[in-house]
Specification:
Blueprint (H helix, E strand, L loop, with lengths): L1 H28 L11 H33 L4 H30 L4 H17 L14
Helix pairs in contact: 1-3, 1-4, 2-3, 3-4
């Protein structure tokens, strides 16, 4: 279980690092300001992000929470470890997608008022969904 936790933490650090790399990319590339895209586009992406967060919470409950209960009593259960790893990776991907929506808005010419909310939302979700160590129950307690 320790090895899996370490792998997932490395993946988490990689996802957080890419968030900062997206900001750095915007500094060097300098996307255009002023857009030809419709003004309701950020609002539509906001609704997509809200549904995406709901979907991520569903997968977190289904994969992470369910496997954590199994892993508390049997920390070496391979199937539960795989589900836990998959749930964390999906969570990171959903949070990163929100950041990518912000990056897309910047490249479409929207300002930081529109795109910044997506960047902040993606980072907050990445930080909130950091993998936690599972507290294993002592032997004999099930």
């Amino acid at each position: 279980m320790q090895q899996t936790l370490q792998q997932v933490r490395i993946l988490h650090v990689a996802f957080v690092t890419t968030w900062f790399l997206f900001i750095l990319l915007l500094k060097f590339v300098q996307p255009p300001f002023g857009t030809t895209a419709p003004e309701f586009f950020p609002l539509a992406l906001g609704f997509v992000c809200i549904s995406e967060v709901g979907l991520a919470l569903f997968f977190r409950a289904r994969l992470i929470a369910a496997s954590e209960t199994v892993l508390r009593s049997d920390p070496d259960d391979k199937a539960a470890l795989a589900k836990w790893r998959t749930g964390n990776l999906l969570s990171f991907c959903f949070a990163e997608t929100i950041t990518l929506f912000g990056l897309m808005l910047k490249f479409l010419g929207f300002g930081w008022k529109a795109a910044g909310a997506f960047f902040v939302g993606g980072l907050i979700l990445l930080l909130l969904w950091a993998p936690r160590k599972i507290q294993v129950l002592p032997r004999g307690v099930r």
